[in-house]
Write a structure and sequence with these properties.
Blueprint (H helix, E strand, L loop, with lengths): L5 E5 L3 H10 L4 E5 L3 H10 L9 H5 L6 E4 L6 H10 L3 E5 L6 H11 L5 E3 L6 H11 L6 E9 L13 H17 L4 E6 L11 E8 L2 E8 L12 E6 L3 E5 L5 E4 L3 E4 L8 H14 L7 H17 L9
Parallel strand pairs: 1-2, 1-3, 3-4, 4-5, 6-9
Antiparallel strand pairs: 6-10, 7-8, 8-9, 10-11, 11-12, 12-13
Helix pairs in contact: 4-5, 7-9
Length: 316
């Protein structure tokens, strides 16, 4: 294999455009989409490459070592399993799939091979900063955490059929997992304003994570002058407190010492995530954001929906 692995972008929408910009120059890109127009457009913007008419064509060639799946979640499980069966290294955007049955099918197909799940929050510099403060004992023993992001977002296209927690709030489920590990239980879940048989747009979920009680509030239907920025989340210990801007723009520590930090370089973690994927292709080093973590995060979402009396996402 050359130093520039062959990666096929499967799905050529907005997320793929962002990833392709970071991959350009570091990989030999090719493209496949249900929309030939979007595939041609991304190919041109990325400096050229092969456009495959069929997904199977990309899987059949040795020119493609890996696939980056950024299609709607309805297609993820099938495409992941097909790519694994063809021996490709797989990156799939979060959410990894739709339900427990699909999780089990992917787990069976992958065996002991890694599956990279595109959850950039595991790579955010703010997560590393918060975790370091906690591990240093700067706020003592952690007791409570509250994470909140509320704003207005129009759920159009494929997003219209999915809940806000499943599609967007799962980022913050991952944040809590990255800080404290997967929850031992989902204790309570409410969905303000939810209408029966409609995707939820506002969730409040309380979980227990070892000795930490965590509350996550996430909303797509709450007006926000700042469009979801400059909202605060907090972590409380028996010796102090951390308050951080929910997107990770800044964090303030008041505990055994005081500190104010602005971890702005690669703010959303996307650069580090792409670097980790390239390293997986080259050396087979297990990724930070892998199948097991995605499974844990989805299970938290599924349990919240069950606790709140909301049905789980369905398949294709």
């Amino acid at each position: 294999m050359t130093d520039r692995p062959g990666i096929c972008m499967v799905g050529c929408g907005q997320i793929a455009v962002s990833h392709a910009k970071r991959l350009k120059g570091n990989a030999r890109l090719s493209f496949h989409s249900r929309s030939r127009e979007s595939a041609d457009r991304l190919c041109s913007a990325s400096g050229g490459g092969v456009v495959y008419e069929r997904f199977e064509d990309a899987l059949d060639t040795d020119e493609v070592q890996a696939v980056m799946i950024t299609t709607p979640p309805e297609f993820h499980a099938r495409q992941v399993i097909q790519a694994l069966s063809a021996g490709k290294t797989v990156f799939v955007e979060k959410p990894m799939c739709l339900n427990r049955e699909e999780i089990a099918a992917i787990e069976d197909a992958k065996g002991d091979r890694p599956v990279f799940v595109g959850e950039n929050y595991y790579y955010k510099p703010s997560l590393e900063l918060l975790r370091r403060w906690i591990e240093e004992g700067a706020i003592g023993t952690v007791r409570r955490a509250k994470v909140s992001k509320r704003f207005l977002q129009v759920a159009d296209g494929w997003k219209a059929g999915h809940g806000a927690l499943f599609e967007g709030g799962i980022h913050f489920v991952a944040l809590l997992n990255g800080l404290f590990g997967p929850p031992t239980s989902v204790d309570q879940a409410t969905f303000p304003g939810h209408e029966q048989d409609q995707p939820e747009r506002h969730s409040i979920v309380e979980t227990s994570l070892e000795d930490v009680t965590a509350v996550l509030e996430y909303s797509w239907n709450t007006p926000s002058v700042t469009k979801g920025t400059f909202q605060h989340s907090s972590i409380e210990g028996d010796k102090g407190r951390i308050v951080f801007e929910s997107n990770g723009i800044y964090a303030r520590l008041k505990g055994t010492r005081s500190s104010l930090r602005f971890p702005l370089v690669d703010l959303m973690g996307a650069g580090a995530m792409i670097d980790d994927f390239l390293e997986l292709i080259r050396s087979r080093r297990p990724p930070v954001s892998d199948f097991e973590r995605a499974k844990q995060d989805l299970e938290t979402v599924f349990q919240a929906y069950e606790r709140g009396g909301i049905g789980l996402p369905s398949g294709e």
